[in-house]
Amino acid sequence: MGKKKSHHTEKNSKQQSSQIKKISSVKRAEITLQCERLFRLCSDPAYATQLWDNYLEITKILEKIKRLEDMKTITTKRSTAIKQFIDWLKDNNANIDGISIAEFPGFELGLKAEKSYEANELLLEIPGKLIFSVETAASELSTIQNDPLIQHMPQVALAIALLIERHKTNSKWKAYINMLPTNYSTVLYMTTNDMIELKGSPTLEASLKHCRNIARQYSYFNQFFQNNNNQVSDLLRDVFTYEEYCWAVSTVMTRQNIIPSRNDSQMIHALIPMWDMCNHEEGIITTDFNINSDTCECYVKRSFNKGEQIFINYGLRTNSEFFVHSGFVYPDNKNDGFKLRLGISKSDPLFNDRVNLLEKIGFTSSMTFLLENSSEPITDQMLAFLRIFSMRKNELDHWLESEKIFDLMHRDCSLDTVVEENVKKFLLTRLKLLISNYPTKLEEDIELLKTTMSPSRKMIIQLRVTEKKILAGALEYVEQWIKT
């Protein structure tokens, strides 16, 4: 069971209630107009290579929409909701003995050990009836189940389900929803000034695409709720805003898990109360879903002393993935990597031969590989692509006819010296270029982290540091490889 949840789950520890005043008809007409513009802007394929300009235009429209939607809510501190939440869990037979919710520096809220735990000891059990999914919550969603986004995008469906329960008068999930953060540290909450700090990083593209996708979904649902009559539209029509949608999407992105459906026919997305209060630490994954007892069971991954924060492992993800989808960076991430896109130019006179050879090993003419955070940063797959990329006509002809084509993925594969030298030279040049794309040097970023700055900027610089360390390690590896 993999998980995505934010380390820094909120910028403040407040939680919104659903007391929202209705938007006037004049403002509503303007919002509708802006949403139509936004949808077109987010759907225009012409912006595929102009992501930054697209993002700036999208942001301008969203700023107008947010001003028009200015729907302030009465807020209460999350800490005041803890007792009600714990009581709700116990009343519904959750086993949470030995743990409590507490604040921890740098993490906001997390789970605290009220006794000492040994590795693999049972930590908590959450019954299926308390697990938030489209099967257990928001029955109203069935009235729009044929909508393409609801039907084909389970995370979107879960986000809309969360908004339905948030705005229902008597939701059985009220105690859980009141424990959720008001906002998050995901890219959806970052400013253009924050995003500029990502210049040179491959994570910038992923961040911009994510923001565009969410803006498109918001504009789609805004128009859908205004123009349709069904239970969901009637409930959300007057309360659905961009900020509400960002909150719901970020809640799902940072806290979701995959569990078996009630009839065990498929895996579905779900939110698991209390378990989703755990923060991330590397180690073994010790959470599973017991189909027989319909219970989420979590075991401690290592020993914890009384008073310590209890961590779980969210799964094998790079810091770029944690950053975009979970809103944090894990500095010592052993599973980290730097995405490197490689491709064969169509103007290459040997394009067809290279592509034919690539296809024989299951590759395409353009691929993204991961420079790994290890002593062997160049994967076998990347090496095979680069070898084909660097071959001359006679080598391509030889390997197109060879029965041992997968030997290209072996490091000790016998190849012409010129091909291997070209691979090394290409990597050396490319790595130096990637490092130079950043506006700052690694040493400068390390010094910057010692200064005071906003949480968002600090997280971005932490990300830059981890990316640059991977590039530096790969460059050192290639330089040593050239010498051999």
UniProtKB/TrEMBL annotation:
Recorded GO CC terms: cytoplasm
Compartment annotation: Cytoplasm
E.C. no: 2.1.1.85
Alphabetically ordered keywords of this record: Actin-binding, Cytoplasm, Methyltransferase, S-adenosyl-L-methionine, Transferase
Leading EC class: transferase
Source species, domain of life: Eukaryota
MF (Gene Ontology): actin binding; protein-L-histidine N-tele-methyltransferase activity; protein-lysine N-methyltransferase activity
GO annotation (BP), single: methylation
Residue stretches making up the SET domain: 97-315
Recorded catalytic activity of this chain's protein: L-histidyl-[protein] + S-adenosyl-L-methionine = N(tele)-methyl-L-histidyl-[protein] + S-adenosyl-L-homocysteine + H(+)
Region (Disordered): 1-22
Entry's family note: Belongs to the class V-like SAM-binding methyltransferase superfamily. SETD3 actin-histidine methyltransferase family.
Protein name listed in UniProt: protein-histidine N-methyltransferase
Organism expressing this protein natively: Aphidius gifuensis
